Amino acid sequence: MSDVAVEKSGPAVEITGLKKSFGSLEVLRGIDVRVDSGEVICIIGPSGSGKSTLLRCVNVLEEPTAGKIVVNGIELTHPDVDIDAARTRIGMVFQSFNLFAHLTVLNNLTVAQRKVLKRSQAEAEEVALRNLERVGLLEKAQAMPAQLSGGQQQRVAIARALSMDPEVMLFDEPTSALDPELVGDVLSVMRQLAEEGMTMLVVTHEMQFAREVADKVLFMDGGYVVEEGPAAQVIGDPQHERTKSFLARVLNPTHQDKAD
Predict the structure, then answer these.
(1) Model's pTM, two decimal places?
(2) Do the beta carbons of residue 129 and residue 138 sit within 8 Å?
(3) What are phi and psi of 237, to 5 degrees?
(4) Less crowded by CB within 10 Å, the N or C end of the chain?
(5) Strand 40-44 and strand 199-203: pairing?
(6) Which phi and psi angles does 157 have, rounded to 5°?
(7) 137-174 pLDDT, tens per residue?
């Protein structure tokens, strides 16, 4: 990684001119986002607006077509970057939990630590148990994923990401696959992480969570960031007509016809 540009100071995440196309389909059309250390950014918008693709580019699960992404001083879009090493600094939690069904909860949390970070079994287990306690599931260490509710599985997925000691956490609609009564426990864990100062980018449709926790909200539509600012402004007093229309549908679904 010696030839990679390393910026010693600056934001935790800086995205400049990010574009992503899949064939002729342009999904991201020039995104500029800055996330300071300890900030929580919530990304909202309709399906197909590019929200998930944006997160996947930050983690280099998708290779940007153009633009620059710097995470904690490492330029992930540099041709000589060690992507695998850089990716260990970024935790990601998906809509689906992606747990290994044949492994216990504890082993789900230790396998990447041992293989990627080269930790001993004892050290990996110590870190895993500490993070299971953080998400309120210490007593489930020896359970199998199938024995857990969806909300518990998602909290295990968060603990697994935390066990890699990430500097930035990405959440891609982490509650969208959950039954409504299970959403609260997952959001509670995310609130706790925010209070602890974790830098977070969260794609979410949970507007109350965004309003309460986000330092900044981005509204995306058609591959652009249409509006951004403090949650109270973007959600409470949106300026752009497209933002107003989207929030009218999300916050008042019974009035969808009027919003359209």
Answers:
(1) 0.92
(2) yes
(3) -145, 60
(4) C
(5) parallel
(6) -60, -40
(7) 999 999 999 999 999 999 999 999 999 999 999 999 99
